[in-house]
Structure formats: structure tokens, C-alpha cells
Amino acid sequence: MQDPRVRLFCAFLLSIAAFVSIAGASLVFAWWVVFTPRWHNIRHYRAVVATLLLFGIVSAVIELTGSNGLSYFVRMTAILLIGVWVFADTRLGDFLATGTWLLGSRTGFELGMIAGMSLEMAGGLFEDFHRIRMASVQKGMPWSIKSILPAGRILISDTLRRADDTAEILAIRGYRAGGALCQHFSTPPGEILAGLCAAAALVGAYLLR
Amino acid sequence: MRLVLDTVVLQRPSWSLAASGVFTPGIHLVSGDVGSGKSTLALEMAGLQVPDSGTVTREGIRTALLSFQFPEFHITGFSIAEECASWGLEPEGVLHHAGIKVQEDTPVLSLSRGELKRLHLACVLSREYDLLLLDEPFSSLDCPGKEEICRQLNARTRGITILFTHEQSIFPHVDHIWEITGGFLDDCGEMPGAFTRWQHAPSLIKRLLQTGRVPDNITLEDIQEAACRTRG
Q1: How far is CA A159 from its chain centroid?
Q2: Which structural domain, as residue segments, surrounds residue A69?
Q3: What is the pLDDT of residues B62-94, one digit of tens each?
Q4: Tens of pLDDT, residues A112-149
Q5: How many domains does chain A have?
Q6: Beta-carbon separation of A131 and B68 below 8 A
Q7: Contact B76 A134 (CB under 8 A)
């Protein structure tokens, strides 16, 4: 999807639709099948599988405690699919352009810049995690569930350190607040149709509740 | 003991690298621009990643370690003592080697990036490896820190040590120079003959070569000696 505004609009509506009901989640799944490249543009298969596994465990616990675990699993999976699609489809500068378009050159620019930086950092985290794992194995420490804690500690500490460095660089370059951006969006007709279908999915989710 | 790269090819969306060569015991320097594929090549050499084509053969190499550019990746302990223990080392000796004056129970992540790098390299260089790959070992270090690492590297008497770096000023005594140019790993050869083919040579070395003063090696002492040599 080329237009980041339509992409975010769809993601927002579809997330609500999936959350509202199982019928909504089914409509979201149908939308995902029709309007996205499906599994072809997933960047991190292992992370998706691990998240699905986590949902499965939580669902089992919910089911065992007498609530509807299956409903939770279906709805969360639909939201995950939309999230994975947005993450894979987003290009550098998309959030900045959309934020500035939506909320102006001060608040919108800042929120867009923060979102863009976060997404960029999230991409790097997967690579860092992979390196941490390799380093641990080299030390002769087999990778296990126990390794997650020190790895998480390093990732958080590293992310905070990088955020600090980025803030310093921005300040040194004279950044104070907001900024001007000449954004240009291209919206093919197919994307308008995708947006309308996302809105219809939300309406359907409420009606079929 | 040797490491053999046989028509290894690494393909990435923005670059590719073809590498062939034999690495024998001694210190090897692999230089190249940022983003030329040095770190990925190091991963292949360490056996942590499989090349897209070609083979990497480690003959007679029983122990190998790749030290990543960012020392944080290697940390598994909470305190300095725990981190040293994870390498099988006593903290006093490591702290002395690293030149860090802190308590052993200090959280390891509270160290600055430079201190962390020194601590990590002190751990790595306190152990013996048949194949030691150091990815940007001089990054985050000040000049005295770099000189100390060079001293420790010069003291290594066995094994294959490969430095991947774009450092331009402070080096240990190296035996062989390689460089990545135009997507190929070029063998510049043994020292000091490698100087004539080393395109990434630091500007000071290039200037010395232009004036006919060929240093014996690339250590600071060798460069200073060549610079002070009287032109006849």
C-alpha cells in the first residue's frame, strides 16, 4: 500500500473491528487475505510465531479459567496480522509525513518523528537480539528461556542509550520543536477501496456482535 | 592451522562481496569502508552464518571467537564479577588489564561504552583462541585504550587473529593486509610488501610511501621511525 494515510486509517479501523467481536475478527482476516501480500512480506517469521505461541498460552489459561479463550485467540491473531502488515509495509518517513499531514508541523511532526524513530529502532532490535544470541552461544552458554532476561536487559539499556545519543544529536543540530515538511501522497483507486472495505468491516463487526 | 575462504559470495540487497584466500597464524588486518561487508564476512569466518555460495574451511581450528563491535552483545552477567566469571576469569586480573578502577560488584551496564569495550576486550584477550576475529576492536576507545589493545595483541604468540577495522591511526604489528574494494576481498599480501597494494592505507602512510620512506610495519613506532627518517 503506497499511501501511509490509508494504511494507518485501515489499521486503526481493522484493529477496532477485530477487538469488537469474533465476526469482526473474521472480516478483518478476509480483508487481510484480499488487500495485503499475506505471508509474503513478513519480515520476522520467528517473532510472529513466538507471539502466536504467547497468544495460544494466554488463550489456554483463559479457557481453563472458564472464559472464552478461543475468542481471545482469534481476535488477537487478527490484530497481529494487521500489525505485521503495517510493520512490513511502512517505509522510512511514512509516519513523519502522515503525522505532519494530520496534526500539523509542530505536534504532528514530533509525533510522526517519534513514531518513525521507534519503528526504525524496532527493526534494529531484531538484529541486536540475533547478535546477542550468537555471542551467548560463542561463550558456550546454550540459548534457553533463561537467556531472555539478560538479553532483554541489554536491549532495553542499549535502546535507552541510543535514544539519549539521538536526543543529543538533535539538540546539537539545533532541533527545538516541530518542523516543515513538503509531503506528497499517491493514492491509487485500489487503496481507496481497501479503506472503504476496512470501514465496512468495522460496521459489520458492530452489527454482527 | 588455517582458515580457507573458497570463492565465498555474500549477497545483500545493497551490496555483495566475493572473497577467496587463506589465513594462516599471525595477525591479519582486513580494512574497508563502512558498509563494505566486513562484519558479515567476520560472521561467515566465525561459522556463525553460512555464505550464499562457496565454502569456509577451518583447518586445525578448535576454538574460535568473534568479538562484535558492540561489547554489550556479549554481556551475560549482571555485575562485573559475574561477567568475568562467564568468561572463566577472575575479576581482579581483568579489571587490571582493562585499566578500570571500580568495585567487582558494580553493574556491568553502568560502565561507559569505552569502559565496557575495554572490559570486554580484556576478557577476550585473556583467553587463547585458535581463531580470534575482532570486529572494529578500536571503536569507542581513546588513543591510550587503542595503544593498550595493540600491546596486548602484539603479545599474542599463537593462533590466527583477524582485525576488521576502518581505523586510520593506531594499529598493532600486523603480518598480512587484506582490503575490501569494489565488492571483492583483495589480498594485499605480507608486510611490508602489502603497502604497495593497500588502497585503504591511512593518508600518513600514503604520504610516507610517496616520499620513498617505507615503514617496516603499521605500528605507531614504525610510522614515527619512517617519518623521522632522513631523506637521502
Answers
A1: 18
A2: 4-207
A3: 999 999 999 999 999 899 999 999 999 999 999
A4: 999 999 888 887 888 899 999 999 999 888 888 888 88
A5: 1
A6: yes
A7: no
**Is there a contact between A135 and B109 if contact means CB atoms under 8 Å apart?**
no
Q: Specify whether the CB–CB gap between B157 and B184 falls below 8 A.
A: no
Q: In this structure, are residues A187 and A176 in contact, taking their beta carbons and an 8 Å threshold?
A: no
With vertex at residue B120, the alpha carbon angle to CA B118 and CA B123, rounded to the nearest 5 degrees, is 110
**B68 neighbourhood in chain A, CB within 8 Å:** 131, 135
Q: Which amino acid is at A192?
A: I
Report H helices in chain B: 38-46, 80-86, 91-98, 113-125, 143-154, 203-210, 220-227
Nearest to B111 by CA among B140, B91, B123, B119: B119
Q: Report the predicted TM-score, pTM, of the whole model to 2 decimal places.
A: 0.80
Rounded to 5 degrees, what are φ and ψ at A162?
-65, -40
Q: Is B165 helix (H, G, I), strand (E, B) or coil?
A: strand
Angle at B40 between CA B38 and CA B43, to 5 degrees: 110
- Are the C-beta atoms of residues A20 and A208 closer than 8 Å to each other? no
